[in-house]
Amino acid sequence: MRSGDWAYLQNHNQPCRILEMEMLWGVTFYRVWLPVEDTL
C-alpha cells in the first residue's frame, strides 16, 4: 500500500485513505484518514 491508496479497516468497519506510511524496526505504520468520522 502507498500514500493515496484506499483501504478498509475491519476493526472500524469503514474505508480509509492512507496518508503516509513509515517503517520502524521492521514494522509498518500507517497514518490514515477516516472519511466517515472525518478524523486521522
Automatic annotation (TrEMBL):
It comes from Desulfofundulus kuznetsovii (strain DSM 6115 / VKM B-1805 / 17). This is Superfamily II DNA/RNA helicase, SNF2 family. Keywords: ATP-binding, Helicase, Hydrolase, Nucleotide-binding. GO terms for molecular function: helicase activity.
